[in-house]
Design a protein that fits this description.
mainly alpha
Length: 203
Amino acid sequence: MTDEQTTTETARGRVRRMLIEPAIEAGMRFKKGTPEAEQKRALDRICDDLAYLGDAALAALLEWLLRNGEGSARCFWPKPVSLIGVAHSYEPRRLEELPRAASWFASRAGLAALQNGNLVATFLWWEKRLRPPRDERELRMITERSETLVRMVEVTEDKLHRGFEPGAHAREELRWYRGLEARARAMVQAGIDKRQAEAGDAA
């Protein structure tokens, strides 16, 4: 390879460079007796699960990791699920990339959320909890938040339609809301398209 040629770093390689290797150099290790194959699988999973993180989030996660290892000396690798949870607190993974979330919004449950006007509030619920609402109480919480969000949108859009300046903050909130709505609608539409295709194949 010449000096003019460049290499493309893989997503897994980037996590290794920014998180795994610095942690190992600082003394992070597996408990004695952990088979090498198991160690490799665990680190590969960490790399794959955290590949979506930006550089700033990876740097923050490294700082957390060096202070929160397992064992009395805090030098053993925590379980991958622990790292994934902390990573999500620094930078949530896009719901579209989570199979369970994408499947739920593509299902009739997602369509119902769209039809009853709770789509964006439900999307935000999923972002925070990574699961659907479980009971009537949680559904009421989503509905209440949806009412607040919809009112915010209506007020801002009414000002715009009447030629008034709603303010930079209101414009940003509107842009944020519409962005989430578009993402959620895309997942719902994917489910609609799939069901229509399946119905056509069955006909």
